[in-house]
Amino acid sequence: MTLQIHGRFRMTDLASGSEINTGRRLESVAVRALPTGLALGEAVLPSTGVRVEPSSDAAIRLNGRRLRGTLEIVRQQNLTLLVVNYVALEDYLRGVLSKEAPDYWPEEALKAIAIAARTYAVYQRLTQTQVDYDVTGDVMSQDYGGKTAEKAATTRAVKATAGLILAHQDKLFPTFYHSTCGGMTEHGRAMGNFDLEPLQGGIACSLCSASPFFRWQRRITKADLGWALRKSPHGSIGTIRDVRVTKRTTSGRAQEITIVGALRTLQLTGYDLRSLLGFERIRSPLFSIQPVGDDFMLDGRGWGHGVGLCQWGAAELARRGLLAPEILAYYYRGAALVSLKDLSIQPIQIIGGSP
After folding, report:
1. pLDDT by residue (tens digit) across 196-235?
2. Which of 104, 226, 251, 351 is the most exposed place for a label (fewest CB within 10 A)?
3. What helix, strand, coil percent values describe the chain, rounded to 5?
């Protein structure tokens, strides 16, 4: 991992708060975890964690990506690094929206997605108590590109909706969203115990048919699937003999997949299979499986979990003249727009990974 700072900065020890380093500039250095502390280039610090605070006009670059806010770099027990970026909510959203939606999409679609992204971030900020951060910087929470990724159009959408979030019966809820639903949205139960009116799913949405991910195919070999299982906690089930979807959700997504092996039979969820083989390869749990020789062909639709707002559908609704509140009402039935002004929200904490 490389760290670079253009401008004044202050570096302190996380445990004691004592100052470790200050300066006008930090040239690009490799940051490594050591048994005795942290290494910044050739310098070895007897610290298990540091906080990097740039001045208001300084720029932090982490692995070449420019970030707003401050950083905490923590050595883990397995000698990896946990990096957490603390950033103000609206600044965070500027780095999210430009990654989650193309900046050439209609303004009202960008505004709708900005409100959904803001609500999701605030919900996570107020409910995430099990770990030392609020969200991850990837699609497992919301894709985050930092200042490097910011675009003028997406920044305008964030500013135009500043402070607006969604609520249901005066309570925040997790405003899940996804790229392409493939024809129908999914129930919130797919993402946990979310049996709320705005997340009931079942919304017909052929609006996303222009998405390049509306239909897709993947050929999976028995050997590939067997290898992935052996490398996972599931372990080997022997030579793969059959793979089939044995239970579906009301929207048609794979809820249970049965894999028959020579040694035993295994049941996985659609999410499990995507995680096992890769979310880029298996783009959604909305698929059918057909044997093709010694392989299996997946015919699928959509990209993502399918819960909440369909981004490609939102873009089409905006092209048809709907405003952001109307787009949100289409996907989150029963939700209402409210203001954040009466809530005190601390900076969003984004995990940057464990290089």
Report:
1. 999 999 999 999 999 999 999 999 999 999 999 999 999 9
2. 104
3. 25, 35, 35
CB 205 within 8 A of CB 310: yes
Terminal Cα distance for the chain, rounded: 6
Phi, psi dihedral angles at 295 (to 5 degrees) = -115, 180
Give 30: exposed, middle or buried? Use CB within 10 Å, 0-12, 13-18, 19+. exposed
Mark whether 142 and 187 lie in a shared domain.
yes
Integer Rg of the chain from CA: 22
Share of the chain above pLDDT 90, in %: 75
State the residue for tokens 């639903």: 181
DSSP string covering 17-45: --EEEEEEEEEEEEEEEETTEEEETTEEE
Q: Which residues of 35-65 are buried (b: 16+ CB within 10 A; e: fewer)?
A: eebbbbeeeebebbbbbbbbeeebbbbbeeb
User: What's the structural domain count of the chain?
Assistant: 3
The alpha carbon of residue 150 and the mean position of all alpha carbons in its chain are separated, in whole angstroms, by 17
Q: What 8-state DSSP symbol labels residue 186?
A: B
d(CA 16, CA 49): 10
As a whole number of angstroms, the distance between CA 153 and CA 139 comes to 21
Q: In degrees rounded to 5, what are phi and psi of residue 319?
A: -65, -30
Binned at pLDDT 50, 70 and 90, residue 21 comes out as confident
Q: Parallel, antiparallel, or unpaired: how do β-strands 348-353 and 135-136 relate?
A: parallel
- 61 and 30 part of one domain: yes
pTM exceeds cut of 0.85: yes
| Contact of 91 with 297, CB cutoff 8 Å | no
At residue 155, the 3 state secondary structure works out as helix
Query: How do residues 78-112 score in pLDDT, each as one tens digit?
Result: 999 999 999 999 999 999 999 999 999 999 999 99
Give me 100's structure tokens.
Answer: 């989650």
Residue 51 shares a structural domain with residue 112: no
pLDDT range class, residue 353, cuts 50, 70, 90: very low
Q: Does residue 138 carry a pLDDT above 80?
A: no
Place of tokens 């139960």: 189
What are the structure tokens assigned to 1, written together? 């991992």
Q: Give the domain extent around 18.
A: 2-86
